[in-house]
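In this section we walk through a basic example: taking a raw amino acid sequence and producing a predicted 3D structure, encoded as discrete structure tokens. The instruction is simple. Fold the sequence below.
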Amino acid sequence: MSVTLRISGMHCAGCVSSVEQALRAVPGVREVTVQLLTESADVRGELPPGRSSQLVAAVRAAGYEAQLLTSPSAATQALVNDSAARERLRRHRQALVQAIGLTLPILFLEHFHHAMWPDTRISQLLFRFTEGVLLVMLMVSPAGAPILASGLRAAWQRTGNMDLLITLGVLAAAVGSAYGSLVNDAAYVHFHAAAMILALVCVGRYLEQRARDRAAAAIASLAQRAPRTALVRRGAELVSMPVEQIVVGDVVSAPAHAAIPTDGEVIEGEAAVDESLMTGEPMPVLKRPGSVVLGGTLVMEGMILYRATSVGRASAIGRILELVAQAQSGKTAMQRAADRVAAVFTPIVLAVAALTFFGWWAWGGSASMAARSAIAVLVVACPCALGLATPVVVMVASGVAALRGILVRNASMLEAMGGIDTVVWDKTGTLTQGAPEVESLNATGGAPAMDVLRLAAAAEQLSTHPLAQALVRHARRANVSLPSPGTFESRPGQGVCARVEGHEVCVGSAAYLSEHGISGNLTGDSGAGASKQAGPRVFIAIDGKAAGFVSFFDAIRPSSASAVARLRARGITQEILTGDEAIAARAVADAVGIEQVGSAMSPAGKQSRVEELVRSGRRVAMVGDGVNDAAALAGATVGVAFAGGADVTGEAAGIHLIGSTPHLVADAVDLARVARRVIRQNLFWAFVYNALMIPFAATGRLPPAAAAAAMALSSLTVVLNALRLPRAVGWQRADAANQTRTDQPA
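The resulting token sequence is shown next.
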């Protein structure tokens, strides 16, 4: 059982650790993944239906708010929801205005009180009292109260987070200032520092929220392709209703310039539909009665009525959003390592702050200097940067990748793709168009060619293999009547045997027919009219004897050679694995520039070769169509499947490519490599920042207010660094939007 929760109140990696610990303590929970950026938790385990409320209770007991969500995509959609984003930004802006509005008078009093009050004891007390009142107002306002409340809850729960460090710093400064005011010792008075800490935290969180919203912009653009309302026929009228209320069988209207909300079949009207997001097809596709439409596609002109066939998460756009959401919910190995550090970060900082205070005290420093340095240590430490370093990059990368036609199943797949050094191509449908056609049929056993065609095509009717379907299409175009097979046996990627009109008909590779004891010519190198093209061939046997062979032609995609060259330029070794015979495989390999070829391979053989490469230490990306090569995809370091928007559910592939250009494979490698580099930069910055600034603060060289500014800047830096990812990949060039995502037949 899997449960998704929306978590409110998390600000740093320490919060993530606290929520994870609370959820893992619930009986039956096996696995917990909490994401700071999407403010969500994915919980897996043996949880009875009524036990979900215990998860919510556990999170609330840890000091955070939680609510159950219907799916992982609900958390992502909530993150990019326009109204929710505006509300989050409004709250941060309100807190920022209040913080600045109350901090400025304190700073004014601190620096200009000599000109306002006479230098007497009473006036000093009045001046300090005014500063204290303003600070208390700031602490209980919407600017300071949430931070202090979160920190105090963390202290009560004996957990650590960034708010606890800030709270301790602010309270220490406030208490010290009150003491200094009473004993008339200005060295202890830091009302202005406490106020500036809260104000700068608010500034940092406001800027960080704006940067987070920018990070989610690509996913928001994708989510906007799923409309929230639709026109549904009720009786003789069209009624506007939320998309969530549409059920299978409803008749939906899709007017011009509107997004189609669900999958369906057109029953009335005509329209030109932009399916580029789903299929990679750059030109609008004409839809007529009987045509299939996909949710998330756009009606460019015309209007159609269609009957819904798949709705909600089962629709094309629903499945894509689900995959994008899954990418947010996973964690990379680097993020898990950062989380382990973050789990002990707050206790370590508290210990360093205590050592700083007592160290200054023991070495003859003043108590005020000791307190000032300890406060700076508490405030400058930033577990938030550790918590954001990876997920913000994953969010940006998965969002811009999805808009480009690259769907990453989870964060670990993105990380793995960045390290691959070998790409294995399944030839058909990846390097070639994947739409083979019959070039010639050669009857070699004495039977008439049309009889051989009729029996062979009849045997292939139940097969889903592209060559089988091409043979059936060829027979029907020739107006050949195809009888239904009596019995049918298929071996994936090898061939079929069927009983047709009393004849035992086998169609497949030479090896497959040999295994069935077929005698006669299985070489395809004789007979008039033998194929001049180096395309794949299948052999036909009738009643135990070779009866002929069929030659096919599958055009190479125009961009295959350039995509292979791009990968070669990046130092990636490539090879082809195919079920076709050697002559066809070698012809394609030579055309695209790949030396290593494995031909006449069964799906099990492909899987064995991929696993052999992985065992030898290679990091392998297997690229295929996700059908006949599912086992090989699953055995690779990363499985990459070409698929339309309606077919992105295969578990074997970690990355789905919407469109049909091999350049998407090179794009995925480029993106993953840059994303991995940016993640490493972020983690390096987060660790180095804390490693340098905490000792710097401990030496007394960093005032508490400056420490707060540095802390706010550190988390903002990792977000801004992630936002440059599309530019670093080169996807913001003027020609990026025009890059071909679909290869058309030459």
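Looking at the output, two observations stand out. The first strand starts at residue 2 and ends at 8. The chain has five domains: 2-69, 85-215, 228-314, 406-432+557-661, 437-553. In the next section we compare this with other chains.
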